[in-house]
């Protein structure tokens, strides 16, 4: 007579006797992460108004573009950007001056590409809202009226103010 043995019960018994397998011990904890973002706005003048060399024989005015950028950490309405008269303004007219301060070149600041909206001394360049963390790029245009001007290197500095 032939006897057949099954290994299955023997293996099951061996596993029970071997006991549970042990992994390395672990422990967990939480690490807190936090930050505070200040509720603020900043202003930067990106592209300067540079007229380069003027052609005084031209019968048209000279125009150059520039940029002002405002960025806030929270969405806001009522953002106001104003532009003063510069260092050499006289009687409400912005003027560039030579380094000796003796010779002047008048210019205007415009808020539109069609050069129809002049910004008066202390006037508004921008008065609207901004979206949080999205740069608001504000174009600005400089314009020098056609005319005959004395040779020289002219410059001025405008103060651009952000109110929010």
UniProtKB/TrEMBL annotation:
Spore coat protein U/FanG domain span: 28-161
Protein name, as recorded: Spore Coat Protein U domain protein
Native organism: Aquimixticola soesokkakensis
UniProt cross-references to InterPro entries, sorted A to Z: Spore_coat_component, Spore_coat_U/FanG
Pfam families: SCPU
Position of the signal peptide: 1-23
PANTHER family registered for this protein in UniProt: EXPORTED PROTEIN (PTHR37089:SF3), PROTEIN U-RELATED (PTHR37089)
Alphabetic keyword roster: Capsid protein, Signal, Virion
Top-rank taxon, per record: Bacteria
């Amino acid at each position: 007579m032939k006897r057949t043995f099954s290994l299955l019960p023997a293996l099951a018994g061996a596993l029970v006797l071997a006991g549970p397998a042990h992994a390395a011990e672990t422990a967990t904890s939480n690490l807190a992460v936090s930050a505070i973002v200040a509720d603020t706005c900043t202003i930067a003048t990106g592209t300067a108004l540079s007229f380069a060399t003027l052609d005084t024989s031209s019968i048209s005015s000279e125009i150059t573009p520039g940029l002002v950028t405002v960025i806030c950490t929270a969405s806001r309405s009522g953002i106001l950007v104003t532009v003063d008269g510069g260092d050499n303004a006289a009687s409400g007219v912005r003027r560039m001056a030579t380094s000796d301060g003796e010779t002047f070149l008048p210019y205007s600041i415009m808020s539109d590409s069609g050069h129809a909206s002049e910004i008066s001394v202390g006037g508004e360049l921008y008065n609207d809202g901004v979206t949080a963390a999205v740069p608001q790029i504000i174009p600005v245009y400089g314009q020098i009226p056609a005319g005959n001007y004395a040779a020289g290197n002219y410059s001025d500095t405008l103060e651009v103010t952000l109110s929010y």
